[in-house]
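Deviation from plan, reported transparently: 3,4-dihydroxyphenylalanine complex.
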Amino acid sequence: MDIEAALEEISRAPNLDSLQSLKVQYLGKNGQVTQAMKTLGQLPPEERKEKGRVLNAWKQALEEALEVREAQLKEQALQARLEQEALDVSLPGYAFPSGGLHITSRIVLELVNIFRRLGFSVVEGPEVESEFFNFDALNMPEWHPARDMQDTFWVELNRATEEAFTIQGPFAEDVSGLGGAVLRTHTSGMQIRYMIQHTPPFKIVVPGRVFRYEQTDASHEAMFHQLEGLVVGPNITMADLKGAISELARGLFGKEGKARFQPTFFPFVEPGVQFAMWWPERQKWLELGGAGMVHPYLFKAVDDYRERQGLPRVYEGMTGWAFGMGVERLALLRYGIPDIRYFYQNRLSFLRQFRG
Ligand code: DAH
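Because the crystal trials were delayed, the predicted structure below was used instead.
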């Protein structure tokens, strides 16, 4: 056996497995050194001594070489593993998909925040509304064209729908005279609801979903959103209304934003206007909604209702203004969205453009 070659082979063993077979080959039970040692007994004594010494030296040398190589191979394996598992903290992390606010929610928040800064309270009302709040008390009697079957979703009246539009609290008892149930066609009904339950002065805005029974197309959806505003107090004037809408224009379009009024008719205001806002960037007027001075009919209807409930009349001598505007309409114009139906088709490629 060539001990030099054996030691060389061990020092070059490429991995722990081959090292293990070399160990078996030389030092195992049937290994070359082990076998040679077993034959020592048959040798004459002086030869046995010499050969024994040599074999022991080989054995020791082999054991040492095996140990050294094993340590080297283990160290190499460790280094390789460390390299492979190294964590590069400068790499970008995994992108976790995150949700975001819908474009409608963003516009609602933007609008509402402008009014919050002006001291308005934000309130919301039910989407199932009574005929009385949605129409009658707003000076829209039964023959009014807006009540046409074409425009209104009527809802079957049952306990749940009745509860949805019944005013809770001290007014809960009486739903007689509130008429049938509808999906509210505008947020203006909240003007009446709020006035019934509160004593002026106050200023509120009401964001919310509204529903119209119509053929949908690029500019019509059966469901959309409005923002309603109402201010009532002892000396509220049309100038206050102009001031507030102008402030809204500046809030939306910067300090060069401004408002324009043109006379028009709504049953619940007198005088009534449609308003537009100047968009300085594009040098154009955007028709955004309707407004006006609260029609005295509304104050009377509210006080009459309160009186029926045993509450004091508090709207005599009051004046107020109101406005209503379309939320999607503002988004359509501002972003040049060609079709209102995109808003609620849940197409991410559309919605993601407005994540902000
Ligand atoms: N409710 C009206 C609509 O849906 C909008 C509106 C016009 C609201 C004039 C108002 C107002 O408060 O004063 O078309």
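Residues 3-78 form one domain. We consider this an acceptable substitute for the interim report.
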